[in-house]
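Box 3.1 A note on notation
Throughout this textbook, protein chains are presented in two layers. The first layer is the amino acid sequence; the second is a token string describing backbone geometry. Keep the layers aligned when reading.
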Amino acid sequence: MALTDKKRRFIDALRSGLVGAEAARKAGYSAATAAQAASRLMKDPVVKSGVLNGTKVNKSSQSKPGTETVRQKAKQYTDPAEFLTDLMNNAMEDIKLRKEAAAALLPYKHKKLGEGGKKDAAQEAAAKVATGRFAPKAPPKLVVNNR
């Protein structure tokens, strides 16, 4: 599963020194079910790796000083397709955001199958056939000679 905002807040609460149910309450889970949520979250492999990793998981934090994420460099791009390609290929970004970037990039790279009607398809098929040995012969040239 993906690392959601609540899971990020839970990991940050654990790192700040809170324990189980208290961390779940601070992350935004219901007070009545905070203990169960904490137990479930501690078994989640994404949360385990986040707790053991030691790096900050907040969206606003950077992984290393001096490195910029794609979203921070977004103002430098002039071509939206280039920005979406970099965002889609950035392994540091959330997978959901990367999928949305890939979906938004599709119209830039591929046309829809339904684009172009029957006439366009027939014209393209005729153009393919016309380039071979079955190409129609050129019409005769009509020369007007007024003598």
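The CA atoms of residues 1 and 44 lie 8 Å apart. Confidence is low (pLDDT under 50) at residues 55-67.
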